[in-house]
């Protein structure tokens, strides 16, 4: 796919691989950042919350390997939502 077409679809490709738009969920921002590994993509991303001018981040890395970056990003968002539901503010303790 052409780079300008990917940008229209919400993704831009760089030398590091595809970029995905953050998703907002219950006051948190989820940044899917799949990592290429051995021809597949590891589920990886960040959960970010800004509160009173303070930015807090939680790095979420799982053992899941998927065939495409899009699948890894989609699963990362689903798992991040579950982590947020289970932990809420305690995520950053």
From TrEMBL:
Q: Which domain of life is it from?
A: Bacteria
User: Sorted alphabetically, which InterPro entries does this protein's record hold?
Assistant: Transcription_activator_HlyU
Q: Which Pfam families match?
A: HlyU (PF10115)
Name listed for the protein in its UniProt record: Transcriptional regulator
Q: What is the source species?
A: Zobellella denitrificans
């Amino acid at each position: 796919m052409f780079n300008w077409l990917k940008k229209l679809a919400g993704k831009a490709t760089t030398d590091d691989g595809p970029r995905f738009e953050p998703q907002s969920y219950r006051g948190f921002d989820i940044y899917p950042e799949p990592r290429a590994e051995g021809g597949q993509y590891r589920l990886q991303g960040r959960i970010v919350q800004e509160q009173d001018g303070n930015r807090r981040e939680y790095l979420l890395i799982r053992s899941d390997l998927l065939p495409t970056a899009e699948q890894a990003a989609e699963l990362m968002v689903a798992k991040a939502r579950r982590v947020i539901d289970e932990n809420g503010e305690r995520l950053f303790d």
